Amino acid sequence: MFKQRWNDTIRIVLAIVFIFLVMPNESRAIELSEKVSVSSFEELKTALDSGAENIEITENIDVVETLLIKGSVTINGNREGIVLKGKMESGPILKTITRHSGDITINNLIIDGNEKSSGILVETDRESHLALNNVSINNCSSKLLEEGALFIIGNRKVTINKCNFDNNIHGTIFVGYDPDVIIDNSIFSNNKMTSFGFGGAITFSSHDDTNLGKVDITNTDFINNSCENIAGAINLVGSEVNIDNCNFVGNTSKSYGGAIYIQKMYSGNIKNCTFDGNKSTNQDGGAIDNRMNYPLEISDCVFENNKSARNGGASNILKNQQVEMVDSDYKFYEHLKVLNTSFSDNFAKKGIFELKASKYPSIFGVYNSNVSNIDSLSAPAKLDRHTAYNNYDISFVSDDLIVPSENYSIIYDGNGNTNGSVPEDNNEYEEGSEVVVLDNIGNLVKDNCKFSGWNTKADGTGITYRAEDILLIRENVVLYAMWEAPDEIKEDDEVKEDSDYDMSFLIWDWSPAIEIERTILHRAYINGYPDGTIRPKGEITRGEVAAIISRLHSNTEEIEYGTENIYFDVKPTDWYSKHIKYVTDNKLMNGYEDGMFRPEAKITRGEYATVIARYNSLEGIETTFEDSKNHWSGKSIGAVYAADWVNGYLDGTFRPSSNISREEVVTMTNKMLERRIDKNSIEHLVTSKFIDLENDSWSYYDLIEASNTHEMVKRNSDFKVEDWKAVK
């Protein structure tokens, strides 16, 4: 009897086990996918151990031992951020089992390592996806190198969105086995890689040369991250890398790449990014080091205040520290393109060289092909004579590191004169010096001709200069006198006693001449800024040019005009609206086909040449500048050049697509208006003072002329220079 009952009990137990193991798989799956709410460490551990796939954490939890993830799971905190705080002496707060299979998603969670624990360790198969959304991982540390905040091996795809990583030690994110990685709208700050690791914020590690994985990093800030070895922020590996609209500020490495070190990459684009204050304290590449010469394009970026102990204040591409460049080094530059990017106040202790086409023809050729619209050098070092191609950006070095350059001279040639003597300039000039062109002070004469200026070619096909023009010297220059035949008087021309040329302000007598001065009012057409600056080298916008042209055309300091515009991007309340309406109504400037005027857009040299050509109703002339012949503004450039209102560069270019500076605008405009002053013109008068305008600047007098309303008389009968009587 007892035996029978025992057998029945066994059969029931076996049936229950059978039912549990075999029959209810569907219902069990449904249970695992249902949301499980937990509020304690024990509940969270139980949920993960049981394979729950949807876990909601409702309270902050102290984690006393590593939590294991065994399958696909979504872990949710709340919008304010639930905190998982490590209370162990070491080890990760969350960890997958070895060769984990399944996707992991973590939302709205704060993981705090308490400066002892590491964050998340994920080791999965090659088909898994890891996604972090609105997650903060802070204060994590590890005794193992690179396991600081997030250690990832094996995932097919990693997505990090709206996440913060702060104050993590021994690395922040380590990514191995080449997954596709997307990082967007996140912040990496104050993270450190100690010892000999790579990447204070992110390290990518390659294990497959044929498929490195794709990396996209967008809208993300990297601030004050550091590495004791290589890459202050990112150690980069990827088959295709795109970094867009990111900020790299104050990152530091002791070795290569203050912000980024490119370890392996088949194609890279860095655009719309700012690199500010990054440092390589012992080696190369203050912001970026690409010494392995992988293909990289940098566009629309800003590099400022970056520093390198050797080469590359902002960007380095040289493999070794070099004492002297050789032309065969062009191979280092072939894979780097830099477009529409500005560099200022970057520092490189070594690696300066002067790029001369004659000495470095191969490097020069690659430079012209790969680099465009770059202002490579700037104050305070005033090294405009150096094209620091291996650094792109050296604009601040200590004086003892400036390599003495060859000195150049200017020779004046009478070009067939029959009497008089050529001016003598016995000075030697460094490359980049601004030299004032001399007048015909030796009274050169050529029979039956009139002296008309100087030209860099004897046949007059070079660049023309007038007395007191500024010549930017980059080589030895010969200036040839230009001679014009006088206008012939035809027999049927009637010579009238009273001509259109009004001489009534002069009384001619054999006694010493007494000149009755005709006073002319010149109105200011350019203003300074409220902070007391005039910003000579600042670029000028289309709205500002519209204001200049409208004031000149209407001969008023400030026009009174309607503000209703036809352009979608110009509001009646905008300060420039009346000026834009005026220049549009008077056909002095046009908008664009899309109905926009773009008043805040910078204006180029070609555009401004077109504006002043229209202002004077000049007919277009084919330009002689090779880089402008096929440019839309080419004929306007030809017209204003023929009028002697603009100059090109000594290399024979005009650079129509380069943005024009405020000082270039007033220089062109003053030539057009025949307004010229010198030191004696404004003696004893008080003119507008600008805190950033030095009186030894080449554009000083042009800017004073343009920014002060004044009464003036012509100094002498050739009408070249003004003498001011009063400042209004």
* Uncertain ranges: 15-30, 376-405, 487-516
Approximate helicity band: 10-25%
Mean pLDDT: 78
Terminal CA distance reads 127 Å
Strand tally: 52
Radius of gyration: 36 Å
Structural class: alpha/beta
- Can you tell me the overall shape? elongated
Question: Can you give a write-up of this model?
Answer:
With about 725 residues, the chain is α/β, with parallel strands linked by helices. The chain folds into 5 domains: about 35 residues; about 140 residues; about 190 residues; about 80 residues; about 210 residues, no CATH class. Helix content is about 15%, strand content about 25%. The strands form 8 sheets. The protein has a 22-stranded parallel beta sheet that branches. A 10-stranded parallel beta sheet has the order 4-7-9-11-14-18-22-26-30-34. Strands 17-21-25-29-33-37-39 form a 7-stranded parallel beta sheet, with no helix packed on it. A hairpin with a 7-residue loop joins β51 and β52. α7 crosses α8. The protein starts with a helix and ends with a strand. About 10% of the residues have low confidence.
